[in-house]
Design brief:
Blueprint (H helix, E strand, L loop, with lengths): L2 H15 L8 E6 L4 E7 L4 E7 L3 H6 L6 H17 L6 E3 L8 H11 L5
Parallel strand pairs: 1-4
Antiparallel strand pairs: 1-2, 2-3
Helix pairs in contact: 3-4
């Protein structure tokens, strides 16, 4: 089985269990080879409430390399600050089919440290 196929199967299995509501939205993380993206999504209405990635101007100015754990933790801090400004304090974590390790874990730990509960 190819790696991409197994990731898609895992992503589908996770999404069947993790649903975001307006009270407790879903924090979806997507990791590519060169960037990391995080969105807080209300699945009931289908709206993205807050987003951040290593492509944002605010983040690009602070980091030198966009595909390491330091950049991921910075994105985690920013997403947590933006969500708390929008009165979102608790979310459900969606790791996007990836293993909870490395850049995904760094983003989650930084978001928890800034006050986001999951």
């Amino acid at each position: 089985m190819k790696k991409n196929t197994s990731i898609q199967k895992t992503r589908k299995r996770i999404r069947s269990k993790v649903k975001g509501t307006s009270e407790c939205p879903r924090l979806a993380v997507f990791r590519s080879n060169s960037h990391i993206y995080a969105q807080i999504i209300d699945d009931v209405s289908g709206n993205t409430l807050v987003s951040c990635s290593t492509m944002d101007k605010e983040v690009k100015a602070k980091i030198s390399v966009s595909n390491n754990c330091e950049a991921s933790s910075f994105v985690g801090e920013i997403i947590a600050k933006r969500s708390i400004q929008n009165k979102i304090s608790s979310v459900k974590f969606d790791r996007g089919g990836r293993i909870y390790h490395g850049r995904i874990k760094a983003l989650a730990d930084a978001a928890r440290k800034e006050g986001l509960n999951f």
